[in-house]
Amino acid sequence: MKPPVLALRQVRLADGPRMLFDGVDLALEPRCRACLVGRNGAGKTTLLRILAGEVEADDGERTLVPGLRIAWVPQEPVIGGPTVRDHVVAAGAAPHEADAALQTFGLDPARSSEGLSGGEVRRAALAAAFARDADVLLLDEPTNHLDIPAIATLEAEIAASRAAVLLVSHDRAFLERVSDRCFWLEGRKVRRLDRGFAHFEAWAEGIAAAEAEDARRLQKRIEQEEHWMQRGVTARRARNEGRRRALLDLRAARAELLRETRGQMSLEAAASEGSGQRVAEVRRISKAWAGRTVIRDFSTRIQKGDRVAVVGPNGAGKTTLVRMLVGQLEPDSGSVKLGTGLEVAYLDQTRADLKPDMTLREVLAPLGGDQILVRGKPWHVAAYAKSFLFTDAQLRQPVRSLSGGERNRLLLARVLAAPSNLLVLDEPTNDLDMDTLDLLEDALSDYAGTLLLVSHDRDFIDRLATSTIALNGRGDIVETPGGWKDFESQNPGFLAPQAQAAARKAAPATPAAPAPPAPARPGKLSYRDQRRLEAAEALVAGLPGEIRDLELRLSDSGLYRRDPKAFAQLTADLESARMRLEAAETEWLELEELKARLAAGG
User: Fold this and answer.
1) CB within 8 A of 61, min separation 6: which ones?
2) DSSP secondary structure letters along 35-48
3) Is 83 helix (H, G, I), strand (E, B) or coil?
4) CA distance 46 to 38
5) What's this model's pTM, rounded to 2 decimal places?
6) From CA 176, how far away is CA 163, in angstroms rounded?
7) Pairing relationship of beta strands 292-303 and 278-289 according to DSSP bridges
8) How many CA atoms lie within 13 Å of 450's alpha carbon, on the beta-carbon side?
9) Residue 413 contacts by C-beta under 8 Å, 6 or more apart in sequence?
10) Which of 218, 251, 313, 550 is deepest in the core (most CB within 10 A)?
């Protein structure tokens, strides 16, 4: 392994009375692609700022090679200068490099730096980072406010960069595509996994299981020592003072473990009395803004209990479509017929309802008092806030003091408390950590009503959506059963930028050579396809047993502590077996469908 270009060693930093880091080690080698994972409030952004040289640690060392160029994109970047080109040039890029980087991220270099949307600010900041040809890229939530095509561009730029990259992101699909190493910030220290994010959760679960077993054993030892103390410490006090001190040390260790245990957030969406079976009947709707058609001749039917994801580039008309689907906006043509008994709860992506000077208590209980109705039952406002990880002291703080993730949690707390049978969430995942995303996913999975979800988080969509509606910004709109992966596989290139789409349409202008006549289709599978079908059947039958065996071996809570290498190998074997099973099932289904078509003469 090459020596690091940027490293931290035994870094310590206190945030008031709370120790944020206590002996953190972290190293970035040339061209590594690392992600930094941890809960909201663990200190990920602060750690990036220490690496960037913006914050000085209380203790420890920050080392870097001479002349190292670091590009740092914070979670809330600020764009200055008359134009976005001026901003990128001021960051250290030559004018031609600035123009190329901005065009890569879909921005006109002459665009004014004022009045930019959140996505445009993010793209300008990323362009400035990549245009500098830095040795290290530090990116804090780089996919926030980016649409899916822009995220794909970012993934390609990271892959092509010569820089070492350290990312903080909640976007699982993004991290799985770009990372080859994980740093886990937990309990004031950083653990390292030399594999990509796809392997992180199994690895982290193994560590957590091992630590839980250690805590159980520690508690057992405390119980044994206390029993011994009660029976014999008086008679043997002087002789056994060392053992008494050991018991006190064990209790101190136990107290430290308990201090490290974090509160868990409780999320549950309140469902009102049921709507009718039909939520919305949409017939051939179209909509144009400023002479540009964003939705053309679209029809769909949304039934009770559906989970519909809406995806597309920024400005494609996603929010416009959702507002028409819930009756807040009339289409230019066509009709939207809503079902009976609908109660809509709406999380707006602009977060406009959160006024900076409002306190958390005023947001949750706008009518005053200590009680609020949650799912039709009275809750004390402090207890409800605590279920979303807010303290009593925070109830008196203004909204402006909250982080982005905390503001989003606060809005979710208010929206999920309101009775509804149609829940509309416009970009709900911005700034949320992965633990909160998991809890939100569980709450939405259990929600008894209908869900409309606008999101750029591909993994979140895959975990929730029963169908996906995609808009490409040129008026085209398609609906695909399933989540993001289903849409992507069935509609390749649909979300490509307009220039690429035009190039594909122009390509057939050159007359193609006449295709050779298709051979007569046999009435049964070829010998080769029959062997493939038999092999797929064997794998579909045999791999589940292999997977169960691997899962059973990994369920040994002490395995990671005893033999980390064996744990890592078993984890890799399990991932491989699952992927082989998925591929075998897909191939078996395709060959069975082909076999049926051939038998029918099709």
Assistant:
1) 7, 8, 9, 10, 11
2) EEE--TTSSHHHHH
3) strand
4) 12
5) 0.69
6) 18
7) antiparallel
8) 24
9) 364, 384, 385, 387, 388, 390
10) 313
